[in-house]
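Support case: user asked for a sample of complex input and structure output to validate their parser. Sending the pair below.
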Amino acid sequence: MPLRSEHDIVLARQAVRRTAQDVGLSLVDQTKIVTAASELARNALIHGGGGQMLLSVLRGDTRVGVQISFIDQGPGIPNMELAMSDGWTSGGGLGMGLPGARRLVNEFDIKSAPGTGTQITVVRWK
Amino acid sequence: MLERILKEQRRELLQQWTAQLAQVATGGRISGEELEAQAAELLKYLDEALQTGSADDINQPAWNPARGFLEDLSRKRVLAGFSSDETATFLFSLKRPLFGALRAAAGKDADKLADEIWKATALLDKLGLYTVKAFQRTREEVIGRQQQELLELSTPVVRLWDGILALPLIGTLDSARTQVVMESLLQRLVDDEAQVAIIDITGVPTVDTLVAQHLMKAATAIRLMGAECIISGIRPQIAQTIVHLGVDLGGVTTKATIADALSTALRMTGRTISK
């Protein structure tokens, strides 16, 4: 899914919620993954200048989960440690989006380098 | 040749075109007479435009009346509930009668016929695309207007009690909406001389950091005006999510339901309820 405007974030949230419901996540887990997706989608839009969201269902041997990737070709994150710390913001936000999103999911993988963009993949297992 | 046909055989063209149009179902959204009138008008504009302008460039001033007519036509089609392909078909259905006339006029000269048909089809395609573009623009205008109306509609400030206002938020809380919400709420605070404002977020499906930030700013603004702010409608899953996000709503009074919020507000304003 493209992430080009505020409206796309709403659509992204709805898609994530639908998938989470299909997978059978509990209401709390649904809300968590949707909120994390909302944060990361907005990051891709505001800091990455727009990007893409890939949504998929992971089926392990005994468990099932929702995996979402956010890819942008923005300026990248120069200081990862700083970006992942609570309360630090490069924009005008609360500075809780990235670290908060990490706490809302089970797996959190971030790859970023200045100039090449950022790719974040999160998983929430059932 | 195209110019001559439009000038000399306009009546025949119109007749065949109308017959062609009559085959397409319109579902009663437009009458046969109206269609015929529109077809006649368009043929007239085409004729006029081709007298002074060229068929290669419909952006020339000579095409102004024809373009204006097509824009107007698209607008009417949008309002009548036609789809974009139905609207374009109106124009494209002229091809058959027009090509027929070209064929008759060209006789056995195949090269000439091919040239003329190419010229005619290129022109009609351009006009068709222009019509679709105008159609979409009108659609977008309609959508934009509806968004504005929704924005206004979706932010009602209601008076729960003397001095107690409630603002039930429903749907997505983006920056534009928050702005409208804040303006109407703060203005009502002044108008009603209210002491407590309850913001109910039961209808907000996702509370992320941006929404939390908007809420905190709203609460701060309300307090700056000397009133108290209560945020209600915090569902269990939202509460857990906010905790994990790490957002601190500590400075704001929050309640699970609007009923709790109201009873707190009543107490704040020095009222007691008894059975």
